[in-house]
User: Fold this.
Amino acid sequence: MESKDGARETISEESTVITKNEWTFFNPAQKFNRDISIEVVKECFKDRASIRVLDAMSATGLRGIRYLKEIGNSIVYLNDISQSSVDTIRSNVLLNGIEDAEYFGSDLQGIKESGNARANVVKSDCNVLMTSLPCFFDVIDIDPFGSCSEYIDSALRAIRHKGILCLTATDKGVLCSNERKCLIKYSTSIMKGMGMNEVPLRTIVSLVSRQASKFDCSVEPVMSLSIDFYVRIFLRIVRRNPRSVVERNSHVLMCVCHNLAEIRNGQREIDNRCSNCSRRMRLCGPFWNGPLHDVKVVQGVLGGMNGGNKRLLGILRYLEQEIPTMFYYEIPRLCSLLGISTIKQSRLMHALANMGYQVSYTHSELNAIKTNAPIASINKVLILSGAGDQERMEELGVEFNGNEGVKALESIEFFKGLLKSGMGPLPLPRKH
Assistant:
């Protein structure tokens, strides 16, 4: 929300106010990003007396000041490489009535020796800052313009055992469909058009897990979200069990018919002929093959909500019911490949669940499902539904309604109309 205080223009978000000028970068589309970050950090460290939070690219200080004001046990380090941004941060800290503040400039050694003021403003390249403070922060929040890949190594050095690494990537187009750039930036081979909004999540978690293993660390996904034009991922970094990276990353054979075949590390024999359509499949990956969310944390955040933020509530409910299978199936795409009219999502879910398969919605795509059913079974259901052959349906035991588990999912209010904000990225402001 924007307002004028005399000659000064301000922007307010929740209880935080920042000044607005021509070089202020503020994107209201990222409010959800900040909202969910507050809730995840609050839930993960609710039993800790104090935590150190690094807002690595603070810009105006909005995100870091919200951490300070909304998480009572936080000590926040607001960093930016730009002197004008640092001046703005200092001004906004005072504007929000935070007097327990310290300014370090580029004195990184002084941070280690400080008395831990609640707000600590730093001017540094974030990679230099993180590399200079090994195992120092409980939370590192990295929210760049573009890719997060170049900051991961430094962040892994600076994060403490069981700390939370919060990553944003706004180059979702690269992660979804630019096969060459994705390989260059994230060391993963993708296939355009396959599970587009989940591929970025499994790509980034895989990359971080592989980088973490070099530091004798492993990762535990807390929440992984594909929202609007960006992805937001929360990872718990555990300073042990680096060998888990072998079991938790896989390559996947992908086919244009949307068949998938997971290839585990160490698997000796690989047949790249598609079992569904007999075409040659394409080897993609590596991808994270485990769960993308910690359901206990999701439920903990849900339990602490008062229901006011309907968009956040709905997306958390999506995460709570998502099954951990790799990728999802877009119903219109499958029907188009089969040359039939699109069927209702609920009919497909009931039929597959009645056949004994797991099914769920996905927050990544409204008209898609996640399931452990093979593509042959999915196609069979789609073809039978399109043909309307009741006798054949009964003969094969396919029922398109009556599954209690799916009925329970259908009864949940997901606020589907709020899943997408309709807002996109903004250009960076003029440099000051």
User: Anything to note?
Assistant: The longest strand covers residues 159-169. The chain has two domains: 2-296, 324-418. The mean pLDDT is 93. DSSP finds 17 helices and 17 strands in the chain.
